[in-house]
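Q: How would the structure tokens look for this protein?
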Amino acid sequence: MASNEVATLDPTKIPRHVAIIMDGNGRWAQQRGLPRLAGHRAGTENIRRLLENCVEFGIQYVTLYAFSTENWGRPPEEVRGLMGILENVIERELDELDSKGVQLRHLGRLEGLAPALQSKIKEAIQRTAGNSRLVVCVALNYGGRAEIVDAIRRIIREGVPPEQIDEALVGQHMYAPDIPDPDLIIRTAGESRLSNFLLWEAAYAEYYVTPTYWPDFDGSELRRALLAYGQRHRRFGQLK
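A: Here is the predicted structure in token form.
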């Protein structure tokens, strides 16, 4: 990407945390007469390029919606194939991500994932824990409602009296309480819904929807999203 394109963005209006609903892999493949898994492979290949763009633009946190709790309802062969792709991606990309200072985090429930995939996720988290150039949260086997339920369960197990429960306490029991809430949520492939993604954290996020399918979402597309975000006036329910 040309440096003059980066210069046109106001550095004071770059979102600190961008969350992305990576949608449209299957439709991208179908338009090309390919199996849906080919679209998922193309989508995972695009992640590396997207993360490089995020670093270039000065974004500090990225959350990627990889697989929801509802996605288990897809055809078993697609689910197995997608899980295999995710496992291979971690194995193939971990060394490079670590060397580039990327910290990997997981959002969601490890239970239900194959033991080999669980092991690779834990290894990736441990190896990159000290990195800080870019923090990448992968929402895998994740659901926004499930996250809130899990937070409530932890609070109950701790024996917290009901009158002591407030928003701050609930927030501290989310999957990644140290990660700032997303400033911008991008959804590809044209759908205008959250699909159970970061329901708690997205309370005051800005939204950007593009018809572009995820495998084709490149640095220019990200730049357009950032320019649109820079024109928003965030008031958080107040008047300014």
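The chain has one domain: 14-141+182-230.

Strands lie at 17-21, 61-68, 102-107, 134-142, 184-187, 206-209.

Upvote if useful.
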